[in-house]
Design brief:
- The complex is a heterodimer of chains A (299) and B (255).
- Chain A has 299 residues and is an alpha/beta fold.
- Chain A is built from 13 helices and eleven strands.
- Chain A has a five-stranded mixed β-sheet, with helices on both faces. A four-stranded mixed β-sheet of chain A has the order 6-7-5-8. Chain A has a two-stranded antiparallel ribbon with strand order 9-10.
- Chain A is globular.
- In chain A, 49% of the residues are buried.
- Chain B is mainly α and 255 residues long.
- In chain B, α7 runs antiparallel to α8.
- The chains are: A alpha/beta (299), B mainly alpha (255).
Chain lengths: 299, 255
């Protein structure tokens, strides 16, 4: 009797997994910093409304773009920050257009457990200069690798613009040291977990990521937060940093773009997902997670 | 009947081998042979991997062997607790191990704070790299080495003792040679684990960059064409130690 029950249970399990395979699967590859809004909000809500199941893959934007371009990874939708990774896929003929779906700004993100938290709180209320606090001896700043991660590249560009904006010629060097300063560079998951655990005092990164992790931030003026496409020609274009690997960093708008892949297994569902991200419901989700409205033109 | 069995096992074995080789056929096909070249920093990644993995391996053998011997040869009351601890270390997913190490040995972590005052920085440094490898490979070594010592017949050790040899002499001249096959396998396993460790190293020591992290960086920076050449080199430099250990142990040339 018991054996039969076990067999029946097993069969029903197999049955449900076969049924689950019959519901279409939407695969979304997205910039690693978007994990919370994609996997906890937009993905599941869309899947529910369309009787589909959702699979999200969060990684560095360039890693995903290269894997998709080399057909090592298959996805229906690609969501990235800055136009660069989307261009990799355009060149590979895998994407025809990228639609802006959200935007963000650079901000100073700090750990409430930091021993400099009081100074950083004061800076967030404008009572101290943030760059003075970040230059204090003993402050541990974290950022991601500027050679491979747009977020890490944007940190250096923000600091260079800040040095112009505040007329502090040595600000970039005082805060960041050399571009590849080994004591400051971490991978994104390492950076955010260290920040949450108080192992790093402060980071410079996307406002959206900070709000997803419920970390306090210091807002930066538009001239240096890279978030206003209208300032591109007048301000942002003056920033330029040459890296040791021969790359030159320049400001790219902090806009999130979504594109349907030409080899999507679920093209209709993929288009519907991009439209959903642009819809009022999708935009409300982005807002709740600390993102700003989409800016600028499509790619 | 036994003939049929032999043919069946040969058939299954060839399928298994085919499954094993499939990804490497993929590698041979995907490698850009005409544009085979290396990215900046690949050479130093090879140096970092080899030098620091060797240091980690020495530490693992030096600290793991006595523990393995003690576990294999002594009646310990709360033995299951030690088993749980070893399994815990073995089960921890590499990424989680990195996060745990960061919270303990990070600059404001309980251990990291003290060590940093003593001048030992365990974040993005050579010692941090070795530490991540040490933690990820140690439990594999201890479990394999314990099994090796457990397979040595106790009677032979006791005969050595009754003949008047010291316990140390008996360990060196009886237990160690008899356990050499298993120990060689344990060392090879630890080497492979340490050298290939990615998840924990990625969190604890993005710098200095060893081969596994450099593969990941090359993928993002340049693309797959920069991954495969370095992967070939990784196989070439990582293979000799475990291969020679296996061969030497079988030919009784070891110890």
């Amino acid at each position: 009797m018991k054996k039969w029950q076990l067999l029946a249970a097993l069969l029903s399990l197999i049955g449900t997994s076969v049924l689950a395979q019959n519901t279409p699967v939407l695969r979304v590859a997205y910039a690693g910093s978007m994990g919370v809004v994609m996997d906890n909000a937009a993905g599941p809500a869309f899947a529910k409304a369309h009787q589909a199941s959702y699979q999200g893959m969060g990684q560095g934007s360039y890693a995903l773009a290269r894997l998709l371009a080399a057909h090592q990874l298959q996805a229906d939708v690609f969501v990235t920050i800055t136009p660069g990774p989307m261009r990799v896929l355009k060149q590979a003929g895998l994407v025809t257009s990228g639609t802006p779906v959200a935007s963000t700004q650079m901000a100073v993100i700090y750990s409430p457990r930091s021993r400099f938290a009081r100074d950083l709180d004061a800076a967030s209320h404008g009572q101290k200069n943030w760059y003075d606090v970040l230059s204090e001896p003993g402050v541990r700043l974290g950022r991601t690798d500027p050679e491979i991660d747009p977020q890490g590249a944007n940190v250096l560009l923000t600091l260079q613009l800040a040095s112009d904006y505040y007329h502090k010629p040595d600000l970039l060097k005082a805060v960041a040291g050399s571009p590849q300063n080994p004591s400051q560079i971490f991978t994104e998951p390492s950076l955010m977990s260290r920040l949450e655990a108080g192992q790093i005092d402060v980071a410079i990164g996307y406002l959206s990521a900070a709000q997803s992790h419920h970390l306090p931030t210091i807002a930066l003026p538009d001239q240096i937060n890279l978030g206003d496409p209208d300032m591109q020609a007048s301000w942002y274009d003056r920033a330029s940093i040459a890296l040791a690997n021969g790359k030159t960093l320049r400001v790219q708008p902090l806009v999130f773009y979504a594109g349907v892949l030409t080899n999507a297994k679920q093209p209709a569902l993929a288009r519907a997902f991009v439209n959903y991200l642009k819809s009022s419901e999708g935009q409300a989700m982005f807002r709740e997670h600390g993102y700003s409205a989409p800016r600028g033109n499509g790619l | 009947m036994s003939h049929g069995n032999a043919r069946l096992s040969a058939f299954v074995s060839s399928i298994t081998l085919l499954l094993l080789i499939a990804p490497f056929i993929g590698l041979a096909l995907a490698t850009p042979w005409r544009h085979f070249g290396f990215a900046d920093g690949d050479a130093s990644a090879i140096g970092v991997s080899l030098i620091y993995s060797s240091i980690a391996l020495v530490l693992i053998v030096a600290l793991g062997t006595p523990l393995a011997w003690w576990l294999a040869r002594h009646q310990i009351r709360a033995r299951w607790l030690i088993d749980v601890l070893l399994l815990l270390a073995l089960l921890t997913p590499p990424l989680a191990l990195g996060l745990l190490l960061a919270s303990m040995y990070g600059p404001y972590g309980p251990a990291g704070n003290l060590l940093e005052r003593a001048g030992l920085v365990l974040t993005n440094s050579a010692p941090a790299f070795v530490m991540a490898q040490f933690y990820s490979a140690l439990p594999y070594y201890v479990i394999a080495a314990r099994a090796a010592f457990e397979n040595v017949p106790r009677e032979l050790e006791q005969i050595a003792l009754t003949l008047g040899h010291s316990p140390w002499h008996s360990f060196l001249h009886v237990s160690l040679p008899l356990a050499r096959l298993g120990l060689a396998a344990a060392i090879a396993l630890a080497w492979v684990r340490a050298l290939g460790e990615f998840g924990a190293v990625l969190i604890v020591a993005y710098y200095p960059q060893g081969i596994p992290v450099k593969l990941w960086v090359n993928l993002q920076d340049i693309g797959l064409n920069a991954v495969y050449p370095l992967l070939w080199v990784f196989f070439i430099v990582a293979m000799p130690l475990p291969l020679l250990l296996g061969l030497a142990a079988r030919r009784r040339h070891l110890f």
